């Protein structure tokens, strides 16, 4: 696994100017999107924490896919070892539905290609023009995505095991 250097795509700059993250590849026309950018910027990422961002930064810096690094002393208490243990996604036995976008600068293709074969993927939904937030905020997400999510949750009909809806 390799975690892409955030400098390559100026990801840190995009994080500082989060308007760009919403605008690029969300599936919206620029004029429709522009009217909602300030709302998105105020509420997203509302469902995460500073610790999540720190964990992401640790992963980028260490180039490892592992648990949160609390430092040697706290790691010993939590993990019984000096460094955090590495995640082993191949040991996960739960079914996984994957939603991914072709313009996602937060999940690079190398990492996704490494991860997917290790998981029990039952649904793989790919939208080439969506970015990381497109599945939530794109104007067409209700038509393109939400019905698939509901079918996955409710066990609704699917033509194939792995679905690309367009």
Overview of this protein structure:
The chain has helices spanning 11-16, 19-23, 30-34, 37-43, 50-62, 72-79, 109-115, 134-137, 141-154, and strands spanning 95-101, 120-127. The protein has 166 residues and is mainly alpha-helical. The chain has a single domain (6-154), classed as 3-Layer(aba) Sandwich (Rossmann fold).
Briefly characterize the structure.
The chain has helices spanning about 10-15, 20-25, 30-35, 35-45, 50-60, 70-80, 110-115, 135, 140-155; strands at about 95-100, 120-125. With about 170 residues, the chain is mainly alpha-helical. The radius of gyration is 18 Å and the shape is globular.
Strand arrangement within the widest β-sheet reads 1-2
Structural class: mainly alpha
CATH C-level label = Alpha Beta
Number of continuous helical runs = 9
CATH architecture: 3-Layer(aba) Sandwich
CATH topology: Rossmann fold
Averaged pLDDT: 76
What's the end-to-end separation, in Å?
29 Å
Which H/E pattern describes the elements?
HHHHHHEHEHH
Radius of gyration: 18 Å
- Tell me roughly what share of residues is in helical segments: 40-55%
Integer tally of domains: 1
Number of E strands: 2
Overall 3D shape = globular
Outline the biggest β-sheet. 2 strands, parallel
How much β-strand is present in the residues? 5-15%
CATH superfamily: Alpha/Beta hydrolase fold, catalytic domain
Low-confidence stretches: 1-19, 159-166
Task: Using brief descriptors, characterize the structure shown.
single chain; 166 residues; mainly alpha; Rossmann fold; two-stranded parallel sheet; 42% helix; globular; disordered N terminus; disordered C terminus
């Amino acid at each position: 696994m390799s975690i892409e250097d955030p400098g390559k795509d100026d990801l840190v700059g995009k994080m500082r100017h989060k308007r760009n993250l919403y605008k690029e590849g969300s599936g919206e026309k620029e004029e429709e999107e522009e009217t909602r950018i300030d709302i998105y910027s105020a509420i997203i990422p509302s469902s995460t924490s500073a610790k999540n961002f720190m964990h992401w930064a640790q992963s980028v810096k260490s180039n490892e896919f592992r648990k949160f690094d609390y430092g040697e002393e706290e790691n010993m208490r939590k993990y019984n070892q000096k460094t955090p243990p590495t995640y082993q996604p191949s040991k996960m036995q739960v079914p996984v539905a994957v939603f991914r976008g072709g313009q996602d600068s937060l999940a690079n293709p190398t990492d996704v290609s490494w991860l997917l074969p290790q998981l029990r993927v039952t649904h793989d939904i790919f939208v080439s023009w969506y970015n990381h937030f497109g599945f939530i905020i794109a104007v067409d997400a209700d038509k393109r995505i939400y019905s698939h999510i509901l079918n996955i949750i409710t066990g609704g009909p699917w033509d194939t095991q792995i679905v690309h809806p367009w």
